DNA sequence: TCGTTACGACTACATATGTAGCCAGTACCG
DNA sequence: CGGTACTGGCTACATATGTAGTCGTAACGA
């Protein structure tokens, strides 16, 4: 449960590629994220190395190259980032956050319906479902 | 409408103090945020200078000292941070974000009620309320 | 008027981040 | 067995960030 490492903006894009499909070699990853972000292959390799060092990635040898895989689930990283965001912007409280997004964002009727359904579910459960 | 400047973690705390009450002198601000974060006064002053340079703060002379005030509304910064967060975590989509927070967070019945009310309002309006 | 002091300005320095180049070794082809 | 190309490792460098010290000077009190 140790907090996942802090993952920077650029690093996050690399992580996404790996969360999307793993294990993969640096070359494969670079092919996926490089062009879209106008990164040289070297840049991607640097980020891979840093992510390994941070403990966000793991790798196994495959002949002369490495195959990288995520060492932390995306889930955990999202949770951690979300917590920080929530903390900074809304003093850690959830309902103001939700209210803010509901007010600020365009939502289709369908989406509103879905959210209502989720709230219903939520209301059904007793407090403290959070294990 | 130019995007508000990127405000770092530590800087954000200083901004909060100023959004809370302005204009204020460096000393006053340091008094408020320094102890809580174990920052020396020098640290606070550095952040003030950086924030001014970034265009996040403005100041007016008051004798020998400066009185700082926010140059960008908190609103705008929150919006900008929220957009980035949403982009990174949920591909920019709002409803998955809302769904995620609803599922992940404990919400009291009252809060759920309030959100329902908000959704009702939202559903009432036609699409594209975004002014 | 002169000293004191409270401010802002400038400097410092380690780590993080964005971006990328170069080198050495190794696996594989010929 | 030697050459070649690909791969990771190390180096580089500018900017951002966290954290803080020092200095010159203006304002104010004595």
Number of continuous helical runs of chain A: 6
Number of strands of chain A: 3
Which band does the percent of strand residues of chain A land in? 5-15%
The average pLDDT of chain A is 91
Overall 3D form of chain A: elongated
CATH architecture of the largest domain in chain A: Orthogonal Bundle
Largest pleated sheet of chain A = 3 strands, antiparallel
Question: How do the strands of the widest beta sheet of chain A line up side by side?
Answer: 1-3-2
Low-confidence runs of at least 5 consecutive residues of chain A: none
Number of domains of chain A: 2
Q: Helicity range of the residues of chain A?
A: 55-70%
- Which class best fits the helix and strand makeup of chain A? mainly alpha
* Quaternary form: homodimer
- Gyration radius of chain A, to the nearest Å? 19 Å
CATH class of the largest domain in chain A: Mainly Alpha
Plain-language structure description:
Two copies of one chain form a homodimer. Chain A is mostly helical and 131 residues long. In chain A, 63% of the residues lie in helices and 11% in strands. Chain A is built from six helices and three strands, in the order αβααββααα. In chain A, strands 1-3-2 form a three-stranded antiparallel β-sheet. In chain A, a hairpin with a 2-residue loop joins β2 (57-62) and β3. The longest helix of chain A has 17 residues, at 74-90. Chain A is elongated, with a radius of gyration of 19 Å. The A-B interface holds A 9, 12, 78-79, 81-82, 85-86, 88-89, 94-95, 97-109, 111-112, 114-116, 118-119, 122-123, 127-130 and B 9, 12, 78-79, 81-82, 85-86, 88-89, 94-95, 97-109, 111-112, 114-116, 118-119, 122-123, 127-130. Chain A binds a DNA duplex (30 and 30 nucleotides) through residues 6, 8-11, 25-27, 39-43, 45-50, 63-66.
């Amino acid at each position: 449960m140790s907090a996942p490492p802090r993952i920077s903006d650029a690093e996050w894009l690399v992580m996404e590629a790996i969360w999307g499909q793993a294990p993969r070699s640096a070359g494969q990853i670079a092919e996926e994220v490089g062009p879209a972000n106008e990164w040289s292959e070297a840049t991607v390799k640097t980020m891979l190395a840093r992510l390994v060092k941070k403990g966000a990635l793991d790798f196994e040898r495959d002949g002369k190259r490495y195959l990288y895989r995520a060492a932390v689930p995306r889930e955990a990283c999202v949770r951690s980032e979300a917590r920080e965001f929530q903390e900074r912007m809304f003093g850690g409280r959830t309902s103001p956050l939700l209210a803010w997004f509901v007010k600020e964002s365009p939502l289709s009727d369908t989406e509103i319906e879905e959210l209502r359904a989720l709230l219903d579910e939520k209301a059904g459960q007793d407090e403290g479902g959070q294990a």
